[in-house]
Amino acid sequence: MAGKVHAYPSAAQVRRNRPAPSILDLRIRDLSRLRAGRYGETMPNTPDTRRLVAIIAQHMAAMPGYNPLRTIPSWLELYAPWMTIAQTAGILADATNRPKFWKAHELGWALKLTDADRAKLRITTIGACDMSPQQRAKQRKLVKRLERQKKRRQDGAKPRAEYLAKSLTAKAPWLDQGISRATYYRRLNRP
After folding, report:
1. Residues 6+ apart with CB under 8 A from 179
2. N or C: which end of the chain has fewer CB within 10 A?
3. pLDDT tens for residues 35-60?
4. Residue range 6-21, pLDDT digits in tens
């Protein structure tokens, strides 16, 4: 028999076959994190929260597979119970009739999201109002470089200065003997 046939796929196979989340999925996740981080379970009735509610509704209305006529009112009832029926209808009409596709940086400015808040709440799809996109890109590169460096150190790699201090190349003993580097290593490896 060639091998055992499994009736169910392994967890790794399931993860491998799962489609990657869309930017809207990730954005709604980040907006939910922002809502929970700033306001907790129920949002207060302020201009900032009304702006956040409108932005979340716009993203929910753009999600494929969501029925905005059912999803948005139930979400508002859960997290913004102070909204009147007229306000809910207005937000629903704006979200479905005039969808706005936000860029990360625009959304960061609209929500007054700082880089410190982004880091604390682990928000990745919304920009920061206190950093330009170029500054965020530079910061991402630096963080990635430091992570790679840390991984190399954990795997046993030495910093260049330490390596050069201990290497024969830095000391160049073949110069003292008046021979070439290749001759030095050839003689070193002779039995």
Report:
1. 187
2. C
3. 999 998 889 999 999 999 999 999 99
4. 567 777 777 777 787 8
Angle at 74 between CA 109 and CA 38, to 5 degrees: 35
Q: How far apart are CA 99 and CA 126, in angstroms?
A: 18
Distance separating alpha carbons of residues 124 and 128, to the nearest angstrom: 10
Q: For residues 53 and 96, state if they share a domain.
A: yes
Domain that holds residue 55: 23-131
Contact indicator for 126, 111 with CB cutoff of 8 Å:
yes
Asked whether residue 170 falls in the same domain as residue 125, the answer is no
Are 94 and 182 in the same domain? no
What pLDDT score does 4 carry?
63
Split into its structural domains, the chain has a count of 2
SS3 label, residue 80: coil
Instruction: State the Cα–Cα distance between residues 53 and 31, nearest whole angstrom.
Output: 10
User: What is the pTM (predicted TM-score) of this model?
Assistant: 0.71
Residue 98 sits at the vertex; the CA angle it makes with 96 and 101, to the nearest 5 degrees, is: 95
**Residues 21-40, mean pLDDT to the nearest whole number:** 91
